[in-house]
Amino acid sequence: MAAALIAAAPASAAPQKAADWSRTVVASPDGGFRMGNPKAAVKLVEYGSLTCPSCRNFAETASAPLMAKVKSGKVSFEFRNFVLNGIDVAASLVARCGGAASFFPVLDKLYATQPDWLGRISGLSAAEKDRLTALPSSQRLVAIARAAGFQKLAAEHGLPVAEADKCLADQAGFERLGKLHEGGTALGVHGTPTFLINGATVEAHDWPSLEPLIKRAGG
Description:
Helices cover 54% and strands 12% of the residues. It has 219 residues and is an alpha+beta fold. The protein has a six-stranded mixed beta sheet, sandwiched between helices. A hairpin with a 5-residue loop joins strand 1 and strand 2 (33-35).
């Protein structure tokens, strides 16, 4: 009888693997891209510039600890472009071109290689810079991106060069960046990086000062 009961007992369910919320990436209603659990207790937003060294430092130092919190579902992370110059516009348009699927990988690569492509732009001769400045606006960003190597970088993440060029010449994409800047300014953003936790701007500009605030908010 005991043997029969044991045989009839249902097999114990295999332990379920915890969800990896970092794989959930969407375009946000405010124009940025959000990674993580939409119902996370802590909603972290960064207004950042791709030409900003402090933003690059945050991307490097916060990557592992922040992603651990995002994966757990406790924290969501949204990046909103706050462009500061023409090079930033070109980099941002390329990063956003592939949508949610490729935004964060391209963003990370742009930060990781920031000194290289800024160096390529600053190393242009005066004549080359004058030539870029003289181009029609519809061609200028494409040429800046080509000089920096943005199209090649994006192609490594599955974005065809022709598609990147199309995004760089897209007036609607340019206007979306303008609205993001206006929205940030309305929230009191004046420099980068600026962080919001659950909708409120916080006095933190790097990971060591931001992490305690995230923990205090429940992350």
